[in-house]
Amino acid sequence: MPRPTAADRAAQAKITAQLGSAGFALPGTILERRIRCGKPGCRCGADPPQLHGPYYQWTRKVNGKTETRLLTAAQMARYRSWFDNARQLRTLTSELEALSLDIAESAEDWS
Questions:
Q1: How far apart are alpha carbons 98 and 93 in whole angstroms?
Q2: In a domain, 50, yes or no
Q3: What is the pLDDT of residue 15?
Q4: Residue 3, in any domain of the structure
Q5: 72 in Cβ contact with 58 (< 8 Å)
Q6: Is 70 helix (H, G, I), strand (E, B) or coil?
Q7: In the chain, how many domains are there?
């Protein structure tokens, strides 16, 4: 059994405390898009162009398939913190995995 150091245990405790205090989280990717419509004389074709938008596109995997939804500005404002929380959870999980890998590699001399 690997022997984590006191520093390893402190790092793990900090990460798990942050994981435990996480709020609601929505997985996936958010894109903010601004587009040109292509209609003659529209402001989006001017110089400089004034593009339409922003339009918010939420993409995620559902049962192995990509699902995309367009969100209104109000929906984006309502759920922005949930998307931020999901990103933070992914970061914390990666940190915990990296810490665990470092401990296992040093205990087993896998490096």
A1: 9
A2: yes
A3: 97
A4: no
A5: no
A6: strand
A7: 1
pLDDT tens-digit readout, 28-55: 999 999 999 989 999 999 999 999 999 9
Kindly report the average pLDDT of the chain as a whole number. Answer: 94
Quote the CA–CA distance of 9 and 15 in Å, as a whole number. Answer: 10
The answer to whether 89 and 16 are in contact (CB under 8 A) is no
Taking CB atoms within 8 Å and a gap of at least 24, the contacts of 53-57 are 56/30, 56/31, 56/32, 57/30, 57/31, 57/32, 57/33
Whether residue 25 lies inside any domain: the answer is yes
**32 within 8 A of 56, measured Cβ to Cβ:** yes
Report pTM.
0.80
Domain that holds residue 67: 14-108
Helix H or strand E segment including 33? strand 29-35
CA separation for the pair 44, 34 (Å, rounded): 10
Determine the pLDDT at residue 111: 62
State how far the Cα of 67 lies from the Cα of 58, in Å rounded to an integer: 8
pLDDT tens digits along 52-74: 999 999 999 999 999 999 999 99
